[in-house]
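Hi everyone, sorry if this is the wrong subforum. Our group has a chain we'd like a structural model of before ordering constructs, and none of us has done structure prediction before. Sequence below.
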Amino acid sequence: MMKRVAEIVMVGAVGFALCVSMSAVAQQVYTAKDYANAERWMSYNVNSLVKHTVSGVTYLSDGRVFFRDPGTGGTAYMIADPAKGTVTPAFDNGKLAAALNDALGTAARQKMTAARLGISTYALEEANGFGVTASGVKFHCNAMMKCTMETAGGRPAAPGARRRRGGEEGNLSPDRKMAAFIRDNNLWVRDVATAKETQITTDGVKDFGYATDNAGWQHSDGAVVTWSDDSKKIATFQLDQRKTGMMYLVPVTNRHPTLEAWHYPLVGDKDVTMIEPVVIDVATAQVTRLKTAPLEHRSMECDDVSCGDGKWTDVEFSPDGKQLAFVSTSRDHKDEWVKVADTVTGEVRDVYQEHVPTYYGWQSRTDWKVLWGANEFLWVSERSNWAQIYRYDLKTGALKGEVTHGDGPVSEIPLVDEKHGVVYFTAVGKEKGKEPYYQNLYRVNLDGKDQRLLTPEIATHTVTMANDGSTFVDVYSKIDTPQTTVLRDNNGKVLATLAKQDASALYAAGWKPPMEVTVKARDGKTPLYGFVYRPTNFDATKKYPVIDNVYPGPQGSLCQLMGRGFSAAKGDEQALADLGFVVVCIDGMGNPERSKEFHDAHASTPQEMGDDTIPDQVSGIKDLAAQFPWVDATRVGIWGHSGGGNATASAMFHFPEFFKVGWSESGNHDQREYEDDWDERWAGLEVLSDDGKKSNYDDQANQNFAKDLQGHLMLVHGTMDDNVPPNNTLLVAEALMKANRSFDMLMVPNVHHGYAEMSQYITRRRWDYFVTWLAGGVPPVNYQLKTQAEIQRMLAEGPSADADDDSQDF
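Answer:
Right subforum, don't worry. Here is the predicted structure as tokens:
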């Protein structure tokens, strides 16, 4: 008996040793060279290989177009003339460099050269002169190429100076003569020429100040104002957060920390931030309060009261400044009200209301526009299942007709030519048989007749229009086709070709474009679109593990955020693929830029929000494996940032048999721990049970499903994340511990929602994680990706460094 036991033990030991030996043989040991070969596809290594990427497109006062065209020998600054169909240099680079150096004199820390001017703005001035901004310094140059630095209050502008203290850099008026800013909770204006400062409100107090955007994920004291066209009046608000709850963060330090505290309303809070609208006459400092109840701190177009340009988004002055049209949004975004105020008396009249059962908007980036000359307004609605433009009477609110038509939602309204009765709009999905996310420009008469496509190339088009609508600049490309930039007339006729991207050096380096793919959604029939990145040394006879890079939206998907146009690098997708993976990006049901029905698929209740498009990711990857034998659907990993971090944990908990490895960054794992405006738009208001113990938001909270984790999960979060507070990830960590589940976690000290100087470290650790747990390999020890400082130095010293790189300091 003892002999038999000994035999069994010996056989077992031999078998174990054989398994270990076989495992060691099968396990790939990655070297630093393998990681370096992957890193060569990061943006900082490949963007410079693509030349003639047009930027800075600006229409000049005479109708010509200024633009930047970076080439092999530096950036050329060009002007296109629509009347002549010509493209010529805006100036002699060498002569301008000398003139700017003369103007700077001893203030120059580094001499400008013809190849490195760093011009960010160009404008025509009197007597054939022009003005330019170079590395934050403004210059005025005459026809003889003599330049002077712009002065403020009799003092030369400080080279490289860009900001004032406490958010006081200012919000410029249309005539650029005044700048509005906040000081001590009140609104002030500064005369740009003399630097004289004038206080124009006096009753602002703590937590009830003017023009601030200090609420929720956005906490800034930059002035949020909309100026009248004549620069005489300002529309803004007094921000009431006296009852709004607080958010707190404490930095990592070896001394007493400084508490960071600000108002951050959460989903379900009884009291949230409100705004009280006012109109201010700048010259007299007369404040007129609009006679309306306080408005929700909301916007139709984004999850903030200002959509990124410093303006109060949902207001519009009449040309004479006597009226102010504005839109008020309900807390749950199901109701929108169009109103018009008298800017002298403050009287407000209701014009129009639209109610929707789920949520309003987000398909179009311009949801409304007033036609003051016709006393009408344009309104974008999805009542037909597609975002279309409708025309209404501004006095009565009566519908006057549908302007746009056909399948595919309107994306933007870059221009309305009231004089000729024409609307120019961009849209996606209107061209049958094409990838539905390609954006095109159209024109249509205000009466809905003669809708025409102006950009016929099968590609995604980005346009910049002349103020009078006579011409537009069109930059078009596909994910596998470099950009072409042309100047067209308002019928789409090409007047001049401005530039064509040259990617020959990129291809010569061995770069391969990603594949566009179409797969089926969870219902087995709805088409979904996405990208697949394969290793540059791809071998179709092999099977590759899959990494799904996800961002569920519903305000945008990862594929849409990365863009359908040409780019040498989209994140680290290609770099990660070159470590031996197939990296995929797949849109999901509930993402925008399709029909209203499609967009509502997972974002009309908290429960639906909780699916995070993951059922579509699963069905899409299975479909890819059915189409391509080199896709190994038995080895699938997933990762994402922010909403993608939430979706990653959700995938690992709800589909543990499918997703084996997850890397979750800065996830908003429970929407009740996130800013109120974002999720209350998509999922509606929180509803509690009678005893207050259950919430309709329970089913979307990742921590409630942490016990179902089976695979390898890494949680990552910045300790000073003021967008998605780190409590979101710590709730999941606590639940995993209570459920006795093993997991990994990286809390990144003192970084915000993006990881700043730690981003390269986090990227390398992510590569290591998938190499180890998905590929079954051994990563190199402590491989060093280029640091942020090295990357900035590369960009500053590169042959095509330009104004888009703000690292120059003269």
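For your construct planning: The longest helix spans residues 2-26. The chain is about 20% helix and 30% strand.
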